[in-house]
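User: I'm curious what two different proteins look like when written out as structure tokens. Can you demonstrate?

Assistant: Sure. I'll show them one after the other, since each token string lines up with its own sequence. Here's the first protein:
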Amino acid sequence: MRLRKRRKAQVSGWRLMRRCLVFFTAICVVPVLLVLMVATDHYMQPVKHRTNFVQRQTNEGENKLPVEPVLNENMSLVGKRLEKRRQHLRKTCKLLGLDRPGNDTLHRPNAWEFFVDNKHHLIWCNIFKAASTSWMYNFNILAGYSPRFLKKSKLVPMTLARQRYPRPSLQALRKAFNTSISFLIARHPLERLLSAYRDKLQYALPHTHHKKLGNEIIVKYRFKKNKKPVGMANQRTPTFAEFVEYLVDVVKKGEELDMHWAPIVEFCTPCMFNFQIIAHTETLQEDQTYLIKMARLEHLIQPEWKNAGRGATQNQISKYYSELTRSQIFQLYHIYRYDFELFNYTLNGYLEYGIPDNDPSSLLAAISMKDFQQNDLPKVY
């Protein structure tokens, strides 16, 4: 009997010690895991829409647009989706404090890249590497150039377009917004960045500005640092990793970014204007069809995407982003964070391809780092 009691006491003691050990482990480890999960989840989950579609009103302060044409059921669903994007943009602009006028590039209205077609009551902000080739073509057609002329002309489409659509003043642009259908086309920031790299650097034409820039990147980030990409010792164009390293350094120095990869938030300042249509390249065919029907231009232009690149960029994401570390991908997020937020994109489909950092502190530092763009108004993390 005494032996049994002694064994029971020993078992009870061990159970108590195990419970204490589990308890203290939970207290110490679980909060750390929760912090990492929450921090990472922010980059991977899109913002949820809580507002239902609301029919656009014509009250004071809203744009007075042409009467909407009768749309079929599918186009009506597209219209609801576009209205949700519009409402999300306006709500997020207010939340981030980007709708308040100021003197910096985030809060100063930029009319430089807008095309205003007063004849057809259409306004477009040209975002490079986001179906810009297609809509430059469409605006040239609307300007009166024939398809045959555009095919044979040796002039750059932008030059032809600006001959008919001069860069507007801010006052003229705001006036046109009251009587026109306005739109921009957004693209996932990291897909757009990769498209710009491939088009302008990897396949740069000889003796061009971007060819010269590529050579400078190689000298600074490959030879000066004595780095040679595996299997690419003789590569004459910068690797994607070298380009990203250059990009991060440029932003840290506060220098202006090339227009082909500049953030939309600075390029078009979408929080400073009341865009009617926010098209996405992911749904471009439907969005374009809806836009053209709304503008009653079906007899003049057609929905299309003239992609001048070399192969679909979307199919190349895993190949190129697997060259980067995860901390580098987070650094890119902070460069384009406002574009991610305003157009409801996430790092899902990109972060998982990144190379795990050898030093976990580098990843944590990249996650918790402040945005490169200075915005003294409220931020959301």
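Here's a second, unrelated protein for contrast:
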Amino acid sequence: MAWWSDLVDEQPEFAARVRARFTVRKHGTMATLRRDGSPRISGTEFDFDPEHLRLGSMAGALKALDLRRDPRVALHCPTEDAPEDDPRVWGGDAKIAGIAHEEPAGEDGSHRFRIELTEVVLTRVGDPADHLLIESWHPGRGLRRRERR
């Protein structure tokens, strides 16, 4: 199992850049799997603490019921456009795939999940701005960097 703290310990600079992308705005996107296996896209808020990445939902929300049935989840950072005059200063696009572990419900019955990391990816524009830089981290495999032209 790999938690947020494992990534921070192993790759602190990369983890800081990923977290910055997820906290650029309040609401990001998550994908869960419906009962029939089709995807469900939902808005959500992310909570990073020193140990874990967490997310929650209102009591009885379909996205929470999806995670109870099949805990696989994909998370996407809030979207921010790259500046047209210099896309190299854009912070990038971050994604996290993982397994949701339910935690005790809030007093209001809300759902809370702790995310076990299975993949973390950060994509940004390279310098010169003629290619993308793709960094990906997987537990046990570490950080890899590649370029796409």
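A detail about the second structure: Residues 4-148 form a domain with the Pnp Oxidase; Chain A fold (CATH 2.30.110.10).
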